[in-house]
């Protein structure tokens, strides 16, 4: 019996993990502890980035 590997699902998961790491790194300016980002860590980094954003930077993000 041939077992399907699910390579497409695996590739999507890797892409999502890399995106989360890059976003966390960009928002916080540091690498993730243990190279894994929890939903809570990412949400906190996003919230904190908005509290430290000035009006000009916010307008640029929206555009």
Structure report:
This protein is an all-alpha fold and 63 residues long. Helix content is 68%, strand content 0%. It contains three helices and no strands. Helix 1 packs parallel to helix 2. The mean pLDDT is 79.
Features:
63 residues; mainly alpha; 3 helices; 0% strand; elongated
Query: What's the count of strands?
Result: 0
What's the N-to-C terminus distance? Answer: 52 Å
Which percent range fits the helix content?
55-70%
Unreliable runs: none
Give the overall shape, derived from the CA principal axes.
elongated
Q: Based on helices, strands and strand pairing, what is the structural class?
A: mainly alpha
- Structural Rg: 16 Å
Strand content: under 5%
Average pLDDT taken over every residue: 79
The major β-sheet equals: none
Helix count equals 3
SSE order, as H and E? HHH
Summary, kept brief:
68% of the residues lie in helices and 0% in strands.
List the helices and strands and how they pair.
Layout: H1 7-28, H2 39-51, H3 55-62
